[in-house]
Write a structure and sequence with these properties.
Mean pLDDT: 82
Number of strands: 0
Number of helices: 15
Helix content: over 70%
Largest sheet: none
Strand content: under 5%
Structural class: mainly alpha
Distance between the termini: 48 Å
Low-confidence stretches: none
Order of helices and strands: HHHHHHHHHHHHHHH
Length: about 300
């Protein structure tokens, strides 16, 4: 076993509960912007939506698995790559698509279905591709990971806050409008403070090992963006749709990935640092790409 595979981040049970609660509030705030109409895009733009979901929930995890077999990172890094690729779309993807003159409506539809579909696809992809890789399989067996356990956690931490947020926005739109901006800012602010605090507590570990994941995160993110764009291009979608699909596939909710790392893998070093670094890197690359497209 590699040294990094044995490292565990320094977290208390109380801090893990706090992380779960904060993420639930973040997702509730995100859901205040979601509408049932966001899911109607499957009717108005079925081809673009299906291509986006295919690239995001089927092809990207397969690409991540292929990269781990070719590059052969340490097992915990490899499983971290598969985990990140199995997460739903990131919270800033819609903004980046809009800024980069992509099809925002398609982006919102893909993100909505991605969040809904992650209830099934995240535990399935993590278990399926993690089991296929002979180097990551022992980690899954060591923690006796059950897809049903992951499924239950996703329902509690993702599905319920999302449903509550959409329910609030639908039945009390004026109230949702008033609290939307401040609620999202506060919840994201608390999440950022938590991540900063976690980095401070584990700073020596982060500095020592982050360089080991930089290349792998760079390559996975690059292939994620390419997978989305090339898949959309092969389906002959218009340019604005290609940009939407590319960013929806390339921007993953790594914060949710961190929650799964801490809840099921005890803060396993390689997995945690891949998810943490992805959270920084995909913002840098996504913003740069959107700005380039905008010009």
């Amino acid at each position: 076993m590699n040294e990094l595979d044995a490292v565990r981040l320094n977290f208390t049970p109380e801090s893990l509960v706090a992380l779960d609660v904060i993420l639930a509030f973040v997702l509730f705030g995100v859901a205040l912007d979601m509408r049932v109409a966001d899911f109607k895009g499957i009717v108005t733009s079925p081809r673009g939506t299906l291509i986006g979901l295919l690239a995001h929930s089927v092809l990207l995890p397969a690409v991540a698995f292929a990269l781990t077999m070719i590059l052969r990172p340490t097992p915990s890094i490899a499983l971290g790559m598969i985990l990140v690729a199995s997460c739903p779309s990131g919270n800033i993807s819609n903004f980046l698509v809009n800024y980069g003159h992509g099809n925002t409506a398609l982006s919102v539809t893909i993100a909505a279905f991605s969040m809904l579909g992650s209830i099934v696809f995240t535990p399935f992809n993590l278990s399926f591709w993690g089991e296929l890789n002979p180097h990551t399989r022992p980690i899954l067996h060591a923690v006796t990971l059950s897809p049903w356990q992951v499924f239950g956690t996703i329902v509690v931490l993702l599905a319920i806050p999302t449903a509550l947020g959409m329910f609030t926005a639908h039945h009390w739109p004026a109230f949702a409008q008033r609290i939307r901006g401040s609620f999202r800012a506060l919840s994201l602010g608390f999440f950022a403070l938590f991540v900063v605090g976690a980095l401070v507590v584990n700073w020596d570990f982060f500095l020592k090992y982050v360089e080991r994941v930089v290349l792998f995160v760079f390559l996975l993110n690059a292939f994620a963006l390419l997978t989305g764009y090339v898949t959309a291009k092969a389906a002959r979608l218009p340019e604005a749709d290609r940009r939407a699909v590319a960013l929806e596939v390339g921007i993953q909710n790594s914060g949710f990935g961190l929650v799964l790392v801490f809840n099921f893998f005890g803060g396993l070093g390689g997995m945690a640092i891949v998810a943490a670094w992805w959270g920084i890197w995909h913002i840098v690359v996504g913003t740069s790409l959107a700005a380039w497209w905008r010009r």
